[in-house]
Amino acid sequence: MNILVTGAAGFLGRRLIEALLLRGSLTDRTGQSRPIEQIVAFDMVELTGINDPRVKVVCGDIANAHVLERLIDANTDSIFHLAAVVSSQAEADFELGMRINFSATQHMLERVRQLGTCPKWVMTSSVAVFGGQLPEQVPDNQVWAPQSSYGTQKAMNDLLLADYSRRAFVDGRSLRMPTIVVRPGKPNLAASSFASGIIREPLNGQTSVCPVPLDTRLWLMSPAQAIRNLIHGHELGSEQLTEGRVINMPGLSITVERMIDALRQTAGAQVAERIRLEPNQAIERIVGSWPGAFCAAYSRDLGFTADERFTDVIEQFIHEYQPG
Amino acid sequence: MNILVTGAAGFLGRRLIEALLLRGSLTDRTGQSRPIEQIVAFDMVELTGINDPRVKVVCGDIANAHVLERLIDANTDSIFHLAAVVSSQAEADFELGMRINFSATQHMLERVRQLGTCPKWVMTSSVAVFGGQLPEQVPDNQVWAPQSSYGTQKAMNDLLLADYSRRAFVDGRSLRMPTIVVRPGKPNLAASSFASGIIREPLNGQTSVCPVPLDTRLWLMSPAQAIRNLIHGHELGSEQLTEGRVINMPGLSITVERMIDALRQTAGAQVAERIRLEPNQAIERIVGSWPGAFCAAYSRDLGFTADERFTDVIEQFIHEYQPG
Ligand SMILES: NC(=O)c1ccc[n+]([C@@H]2O[C@H](COP(=O)([O-])OP(=O)(O)OC[C@H]3O[C@@H](n4cnc5c(N)ncnc54)[C@H](O)[C@@H]3O)[C@@H](O)[C@H]2O)c1
Ligand SMILES: NC(=O)c1ccc[n+]([C@@H]2O[C@H](COP(=O)([O-])OP(=O)(O)OC[C@H]3O[C@@H](n4cnc5c(N)ncnc54)[C@H](O)[C@@H]3O)[C@@H](O)[C@H]2O)c1
User: Fold this and answer.
1) Which keywords accompany this UniProt record (chains A, B) (predicted)?
2) Which pLDDT tens digit goes with each residue over B287-300?
3) Whole domain around residue A239: which residue ranges?
């Protein structure tokens, strides 16, 4: 199998590549398991620290049509398309968001259509496609009503991927991801950045700001679970996708208050006290428009899975980033 | 008011222009009623037969960026964007559909954004954005699941228009139109073409083919009602659009069988007998994926209206095209 991963140097991209290398094989579009021969790890930033002869690191701008031509060819069996700019960035810079989050996807799909090879394609959509009046638990047939440019761009990708798949230009699967926590590293421009920050920073001995009310309900998934689901999404046969190519992932529904409780339980009261409440209306507006719970019946039927306890999610992070 | 109408030579475009000329004024974005000074009637085909000094006929391809620059300028107060290729055409020629039905809209919106004038914008979406498992009456919060490229392109336009409106680049309203009947003239490539054909051809003394089962339920609107709603959609103040810019229109829900009954009642059994049942799977597949009834609660709240009796719709057609 020849695999392309875009956004390879990102949070999910790097972990996906590590998981794929460990796994060693994937199911091709004919349903056959085949060894992974090459993973093209594409990103604007160079992916470093993975030393495996199967990985070919390529740097470039995904919004550049010439880059795409060299990146995707008739030998490309599968594409994991993860490159994107985060929600707050797409909101702050409309042109950038449209170019990276939507047009690049459109051009990649066009490249694939022109090749005529119908590769497998897994990408990550977002719950930011939802908004407006929402029931407490969002059903799979809930209308899309993005309240951000990021959500709009993801929804447009979903529509395109579904139509390209219907026409057999590509064998697409768009996984509508919950917010992934705990994300390591620094806070980023995503409106949801605090959801990791309020766990990560206190564990690192730093104070952290919570910009939303304590009763804000979030829809979460751990990094390990996300990678498992990305690979599961790839492995499904297209004949199983009876309700379409855009799949609301299962997740863990939890309030910010309970997240902090779990942190207290796992790491102690002193750690949990490092969280400061500091309302931020801009972030509240975006995050508050995202639903806090989904039925996700279709995805559960398809065998996608969710984290069960938030304390496990915290322990996953501690285990991985604070060994000892 | 300086108005641009795209698709001006089409079925709805021509009628809209006639109605606007008769009306003489429109409400601008500040809420003030102003006389219509100019209507730019843009289409690939030349609009003929309307002789009014306020109408400026312009021919060109809407997918051409240079054309757009001359078409839309800082003086453009309102845009009625109706140009499109029909569903079967967009299905048969993927590139054509994407170019005219989606990319042209995107480029027009970009032109408007760059001008920074935030004109009013009314466009026509379609029930073809829906598909898959549908309740008997489709609620306003029903997920979009287009089963055709035409529906996909319309849904992408809706998403874009909503985001451009949210960012105040444009003051948009997308009206999700039922199938408009009775359409005069020849059958066209729209999958829904038969819905007019089974009324129009028999009235003209010709036989007509019905390609779908008699119990197929359609969601219809008469041309006069469609024009009324397009203008109503323009006249609404943006502060009224509390549930968003994409509005499922009210309509008349009726089975093909009842349509034929209405024809029999209005024009006699002999006329109704000119309809031949001839199943066509391709058309059945597309039309069958469209919902036959909508709640359309939001649009009714906003004051959009529907036809009440199909016999009236037939009489509207007879009155207009067969006077005497
Ligand atoms: N992390 C989450 O909570 C979450 C939730 C829902 C969806 N997603 C989606 O999952 C995907 C991956 O998320 P992530 O958390 O790993 O994001 P990330 O920001 O860590 O990684 C994205 C990567 O894309 C790269 N990139 C950006 N612009 C590029 C360009 N023009 N050309 C090439 N590469 C470019 C960045 O350099 C970065 O390495 C994204 O599409 C994101 O929208 C993430
Ligand atoms: N009639 C219906 O039942 C119905 C239902 C739902 C939505 N709509 C939508 O309403 C709009 C108008 O519908 P209509 O029935 O009047 O369609 P129509 O086909 O009669 O008119 C469309 C017009 O667009 C023009 N056009 C096509 N490509 C063009 C291009 N590249 N450049 C410039 N002009 C171009 C055509 O010449 C035509 O005159 C369309 O957007 C259609 O999708 C119609």
Assistant:
1) Carbohydrate metabolism, NADP
2) 887 889 999 999 99
3) 2-321
